[in-house]
Write a structure and sequence with these properties.
By secondary structure, the chain is an alpha/beta fold. It is about 35% helix and about 25% strand. The strands form 2 sheets. It has a 6-stranded mixed beta sheet, with helices on both faces. A 3-stranded antiparallel beta sheet has the order 6-7-8.
Amino acid sequence: MAAVGRCLDIPPGIRRAGQRRVPVVASGNLKTDSRDFRRESAILPGAQPLSDARRQVRLLLAVLCFWVSATAALAERRVALVIGNSAYHSAPQLKNPVGDARAVESALGRLGFEVLLGTDLDIDAMRSLLRAFGLAAEGADLAVFFYAGHGLQVAGHNYLIPVDAVLERESDLDFAAIDLQLVLKQLELASGNSVILLDA
């Protein structure tokens, strides 16, 4: 069973990103550091049963809706980046992330967010969309990042895995994955609050 509030190496609740507080909510079977990287990367988290995954997405959306309603009076400009990666080339494919991302996009759109959506993104597309999100988030009152797909923690660093990633050794992560710190840097461009939701 997934633990909500557990995000790779980020403790439950609030984490400092620069001088700002960023609430983090995560669910999923996140893999952690291992002496045997090949063994760890060979067992990236697999798909969860549909009912559990849907329950988790509903819980994540409920938390997000609570957060948005609590800050709605203050947030005039809201932006979100929503990514769902399912069709992995070199890792187990996942059933739910693309559908979950589309559901989150729809829900955020109804809440007045300007939403950037990406599904089944390779490394270049993820970097490009993150850059566009950084530009959109600049000066925003509320910025939200939602990711559903494979995630990995190695040597204290947290990574989001694009669909084209081929991970044969630890150093491949620097070139084939997105470090979560890059996402945090983009969220810091918002002048208001930021939220990260991970289903990895």
